[in-house]
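>> received
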Amino acid sequence: MNFHTRKWIKPQDLNPNQTLFGGRLLEWIDEECALYSIIQLENPKTVTKYMSEIDFRSSAKQGDIIEIGIEVVKFGTASITLKSEVRNKMTRESIITIDKIVMVALDEHGKPKPHGKTKVEFVKDRLADK
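>> returned
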């Protein structure tokens, strides 16, 4: 799994227990998956369709640094399925895992649009082809 994005836990990210608010973390995961999928599928109209069971294993507190990991599970006709793990860089503990996140590419009418992708592509390789 590739861990590219890091977040610093600030006061506005905390719940009443003074630990990382789960909703904030899910927002960050969803945004990271959307950005990744938009780039992979080369379609800015890519949206979240499904997120499987969420398993919170530990937490983070103010001042901790977390990192968000994403891995491609499979490519569908108009979708990409990812999995994600978030870990605490300070404690080295896994905070959350999500085994299945389905992102769907849409057309101008909001309907699923086939993307023709079958494997992970890197931007540097796309640029080399031009």
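>> The helical segments are 22-41, 123-128.
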